[in-house]
Amino acid sequence: MDKLSLFNSKHSPESKLEKLQVGWTVKVHQKIKEGDKTRTQAFEGTVIARKHGNETGGTITIRKVSDGIGIEKTFPVYLPSIEKVQVLKKSGVRRSKLYYLRDKSSREIKKKMKQESAA
């Protein structure tokens, strides 16, 4: 084990995004500060990418389609403003990055996820 991974394992805080896998449908609740008020904003979508694992610089990309427009949001794994993460559906996929879903319609995506979770 090299020095960087040893340091990260000792000093990294607990994360709610560590256990997420690509293909799962999740709902991420994040604290947003607007002026002197804070509120919770939820973002629901499919995990399409996971980069750099559980390192301190690791990220997870979540994609949703809203009114026919695709929205992607990238969350750092150790973001302190994340309150909770709900796993809504677990789908097994055969790829580590689901970037091909960007070109598909929502109907095709659902069909593809059903086929892969059944397999």
**Total DSSP helices:** 2
Domain count: the total is 1
Give the strand order, joined by hyphens, for the main sheet. 4-3-2-1-5
Helix content: 10-25%
DSSP summary, beta strand count: 5
Structural class: alpha+beta
Contiguous runs where pLDDT drops below 50 for at least 5 residues: none
Indicate the mean pLDDT.
85
Q: Give the overall shape.
A: globular
The biggest sheet amounts to: 5 strands, antiparallel
Tell me the fraction of residues in β-strands, as a range: 35-45%
Going by CATH, the architecture would be Roll
What fold name stands as the CATH topology? SH3 type barrels
Gyration radius, to the nearest Å?
16 Å
Q: What is the highest CATH level, the class? A: Mainly Beta
Element-by-element helix/strand order:
HEEEEEH
End-to-end separation: 36 Å
Keywords: Ribonucleoprotein, Ribosomal protein
InterPro entries: Ribosomal_bL19, Ribosomal_bL19_sf, Translation_prot_SH3-like_sf
Function: This protein is located at the 30S-50S ribosomal subunit interface and may play a role in the structure and function of the aminoacyl-tRNA binding site.
Protein name: 50S ribosomal protein L19
How would you explain this protein's 3D organization?
InterPro entries: Ribosomal_bL19, Ribosomal_bL19_sf, Translation_prot_SH3-like_sf. Belongs to the bacterial ribosomal protein bL19 family. This is 50S ribosomal protein L19. With 119 residues, the protein is of the alpha+beta class. The protein has a single domain, classed as SH3 type barrels. It has two helices and five strands, in the order H-E-E-E-E-E-H. Strands 4-3-2-1-5 form a five-stranded antiparallel beta sheet, with no helix packed on it. A hairpin with a 7-residue loop joins strand 2 and strand 3. The mean pLDDT is 85.
